[in-house]
Structure to design on (914 residues):
């Protein structure tokens, strides 16, 4: 999950950061990395709101394979394809995983209960439990085997994959997926032959991937993710088909430029000491203060309440006086960080002062109870503790109250501010006395958490066992005296998969955990509380469940370890990252674990090895540039449309991209590049020519980048037809005849000089529909216009239009329409109704008593009788369609089905040379 609402915030603040992926404008990438858990979740439970949804494991595996193929086909990596599945996480992440799984299990139970209460009948098959997407489960073990099969199959059969090294870091390899990817990038950077111009693309859904990518300081780094529509309904079904999904590319090179602009005023304040790389490091650090998967947010610092601009504004005001930066390549400068927090802590008092007047008024009404409300809790225990500790708001006992005495008012404010914070600690953390020692331990614990996260982002895991032991963070004003702290971490070792399963799974997902005599049963409550803690959405709430004692958990598991079966032991282990590559000399049969769904690979050409890279860090810098454009003409101020174009360009940049382009003196008119294609020339030579859009667009001169030094290594490979189309190359026909047919290039030496290539197409036998298309008028139902029907029936065209639509008949009469005020809506076809509508053609609503005025006539019964007759008429079963929709008649559909069946029994393929 990363940092909730962070991606939306940066998308709105930096509107040019992302671009929609267009097939003809995708940059070249050397390495593609996939954070696999987002794909697994999307393919296994796309709609958690639908309690009727069921999906088989085989369908999940097939959908995952398809998603991987589409992503690979979009990016087309040239060197490395890295798939990372979440393994055992550090203990710091497990607490968040544990809370999330408890909440999802409870939400699933509540949804099922609501559905049953409504009388809904649920499917008998068990629904997919998303909590099984955890290292060590049966599902993850089977998925790992299927991913191995998928890699072997693609390397053996797909030429696009055969020049790429493929890494599969499965659930058995410890570490979160995105951090295993960053570890790989650091290890590659450490190699002597590393290319600093390597182009990286990372797919993932977590918002903190922006921060992770920036820690690499790589010049060419982009993030690929699905389009996120903000503000949509929660019940709206997610799009799972990758072909229907809109993908966005977020360029971190642009993010670097935006950060440079964000802190541009520092250039004038610190001069040559301004270092963008160090600014970016500090920007990453500031992002931790609003909370993430490892530590909670600081009190009242919420992204949607402008917390990030506050952090940046404070940083700009403090940095010139620090003599250095906060984050020194992953190491926290405690002295500078303390000064930054000291300035930032003014926010605590400012926030309290905003509600101070309201709280004083509230105090006059209900007394000291306001403190519990201000701290976000109604806990009566807090009130009792306040009284026991004499934490009354009346602190001026024995002193005369002077309204104009500002000093005394300040003392009252400070005292009440301290009491307000004490209430927070008492109600949130359950302490009896808020002592200086307690506050010091809170400050150290929080700073220790910040340093652990910095290490995790920059250097990898520094301690597998460390975790933040509280659900809440201390106030900024209480994080003091930290410059002299010594922060050390014990590396430890990761949990085994089964140990993590026991640590994070709720009782609802672990059917074996039923013994009330278990020594750790207290850690698995069936019911628990949540606390929004200033947030707005229920999914953001803090899940108040106890933290697991690691020693108790391991001790409880120890007697069970010897009882594990061989299959269970194979799941409860750690392994290295697997590396696969294509080897034409290797040839063996790879057996499928699901032969009915995925056949065995008879000729498998894959070489396999294990690798566990270390990680280091390197820094680079590179600007960004827009897509290339061909200039067709220049405009000056004498042109009529010039002013209109300038206004349109200026408004577009300002309102859509958040960029002020200032005064425009010159407008360029150009065509966007849509792609490139090889064009045959004389004597078998081919040239790669750029393809331009037909539409000519205006561009402001000052927004155009000139003299771009572009490097397209893969676009200068082919100089001749025989290089472009060597024998045995697979091709597809995109023209007529045989559109879509697959073919194979033959030896074409005798025709190459004429600019031709000999190809044999494997043409499938398709039904011949030309005759049916030409004679479809013979089978179509003949419809007459409404005026002809009106003429035959002797009525007006108006009546035909009304009775072929809907007539509104209301209760009562026009003079007395009260009744039940309940309308019956139906298309009606009875004589009295015809006559009434004909006489009152100007009316939109007709009433029962006006159509059947007699006292002995019951209008409601008449309407029910007509409605019943209509429902029994064949016309009622006809599906409604749009007037402009072209629909094939049933007879034509039957003829098409007959031709298709005939085509099936004939020869399916014909080889056609061309």
């Amino acid at each position: 999950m990363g940092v909730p609402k962070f991606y939306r915030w940066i998308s709105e603040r930096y509107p040019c950061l992302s671009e929609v992926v267009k097939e003809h404008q995708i940059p070249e990438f050397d390495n593609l990395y996939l954070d696999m858990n987002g794909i697994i979740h999307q393919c296994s439970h796309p709609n958690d709101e639908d309690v009727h949804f069921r999906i088989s494991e085989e369908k999940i595996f097939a959908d995952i394979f398809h998603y991987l193929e589409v992503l690979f086909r979009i990016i087309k990596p040239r060197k490395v394809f890295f798939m990372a599945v979440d393994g055992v996480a550090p203990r710091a992440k497990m607490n968040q995983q544990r809370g999330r799984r408890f909440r999802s299990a409870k939400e699933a139970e509540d949804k099922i209960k609501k559905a049953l209460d409504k009388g809904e009948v649920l499917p008998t098959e068990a629904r997919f439990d998303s909590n099984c997407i955890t290292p060590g489960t049966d599902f993850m073990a089977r998925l790992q085997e299927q991913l191995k099969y998928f890699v072997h199959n693609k390397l053996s059969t797909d030429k696009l994959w055969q020049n790429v090294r493929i890494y599969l870091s499965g659930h058995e390899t410890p570490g979160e997926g995105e951090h295993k990817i960053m570890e790989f990038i650091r290890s590659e950077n450490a190699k002597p032959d590393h290319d600093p111009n390597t182009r990286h693309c990372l797919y993932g859904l977590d918002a903190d991937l922006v921060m992770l990518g920036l820690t690499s300081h790589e010049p060419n780094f982009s993030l690929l993710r699905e389009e996120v529509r903000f503000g949509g309904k929660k019940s709206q079904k997610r799009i799972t088909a990758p072909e229907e999904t809109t993908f966005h590319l977020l360029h971190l090179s642009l993010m670097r430029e935006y950060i440079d602009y964000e802190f541009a005023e520092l250039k004038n304040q610190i001069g040559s000491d301004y270092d963008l790389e160090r600014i970016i490091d500090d920007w990453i650090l500031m992002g931790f203060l609003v909370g993430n998967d490892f530590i909670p947010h600081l009190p009242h610092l919420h992204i949607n309440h402008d917390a990030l601009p506050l952090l940046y504004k404070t940083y700009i005001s403090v940095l010139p006086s620090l003599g250095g930066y906060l984050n020194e390549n992953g190491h926290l400068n405690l002295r500078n960080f303390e000064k930054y927090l000291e300035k930032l802590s003014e926010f605590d008092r400012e926030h309290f002062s905003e509600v101070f007047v309201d709280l004083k008024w509230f105090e006059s009404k209900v007394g000291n109870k306001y403190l519990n409300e201000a701290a976000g809790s109604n806990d009566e225990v807090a009130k009792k503790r306040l009284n026991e500790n004499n934490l009354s708001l009346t602190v001026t006992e024995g002193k005369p109250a002077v309204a104009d005495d500002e000093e005394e008012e300040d003392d009252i404010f400070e005292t009440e501010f301290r009491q307000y914070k004490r209430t927070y600690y008492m109600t949130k953390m359950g302490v009896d006395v808020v002592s200086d020692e307690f506050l010091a331990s809170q400050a150290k614990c929080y700073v220790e958490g910040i340093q652990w996260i910095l290490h995790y982002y920059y250097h990898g895991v520094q301690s597998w066992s460390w975790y933040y032991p509280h659900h809440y963070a201390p106030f900024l004003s209480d994080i003091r005296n930290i410059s002299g702290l010594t922060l050390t971490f014990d590396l430890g070792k990761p949990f085994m998969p089964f140990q993590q399963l026991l640590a994070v799974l709720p009782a609802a997902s672990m059917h074996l955990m039923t013994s009330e005599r278990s020594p750790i049963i207290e850690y698995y409550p069936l019911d628990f509380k949540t606390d929004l803690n200033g947030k707005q959405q229920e999914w953001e709430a803090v899940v108040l469940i106890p933290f697991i004692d690691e020693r108790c958990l391991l001790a409880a598991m120890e007697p069970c370890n010897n009882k594990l079966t061989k299959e269970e032991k194979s799941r409860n282990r750690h392994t290295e990252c697997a590396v696969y590559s294509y080897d034409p000399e290797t040839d063996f049969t790879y057996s499928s674990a699901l032969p009915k769904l995925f056949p065995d690979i008879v000729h498998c050409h894959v070489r396999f090895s294990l690798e566990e890279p270390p990680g280091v860090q390197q820094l680079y810098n590179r600007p960004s540039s827009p897509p290339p454009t061909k200039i067709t003409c220049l405009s000056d101020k004498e042109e009529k449309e010039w002013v209109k174009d300038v206004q349109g360009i200026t408004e577009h940049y300002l309102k859509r991209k958040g960029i002020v382009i200032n005064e425009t003196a010159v407008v360029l008119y150009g065509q966007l590049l849509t792609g490139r294609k090889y064009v045959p020339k004389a004597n078998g030579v081919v040239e790669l020519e750029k393809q331009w859009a037909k539409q000519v667009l205006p561009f402001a001169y000052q927004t155009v980048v000139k003299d771009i030094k572009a490097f397209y290594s893969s676009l200068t490979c082919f100089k001749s037809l025989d290089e472009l189309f060597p024998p045995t190359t697979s091709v597809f026909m995109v023209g007529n005849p045989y559109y879509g047919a697959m073919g194979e290039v033959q030896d074409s030496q005798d025709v190459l000089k004429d600019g031709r290539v000999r190809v044999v197409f494997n043409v499938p036998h398709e039904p011949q529909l030309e005759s049916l298309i030409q004679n479809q008028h013979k089978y179509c139902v003949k419809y007459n216009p409404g005026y002809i029907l009106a003429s035959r029936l002797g009525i007006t065209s108006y009546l035909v239009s009304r009775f072929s639509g809907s007539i509104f008949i209301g209760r009562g009469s026009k003079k007395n329409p009260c009744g039940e005020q309940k309308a019956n809506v139906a298309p009606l076809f009875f004589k009295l109704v015809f006559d009434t509508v004909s006489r009152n053609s100007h009316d939109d609503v007709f009433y029962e008593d006006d159509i059947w005025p007699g006292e002995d006539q019951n209008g409601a019964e008449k309407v029910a009788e007509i409605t019943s007759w209509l429902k029994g008429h064949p016309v009622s079963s006809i599906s409604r369609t749009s007037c402009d929709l072209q629909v094939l008649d049933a007879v034509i559909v039957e003829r098409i089905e007959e031709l298709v069946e005939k085509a099936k029994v004939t020869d399916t393929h014909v080889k056609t040379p061309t």
In short: Confidence is low (pLDDT under 50) at residues 370-403, 613-625, 816-829. The first strand starts at residue 18 and ends at 20.
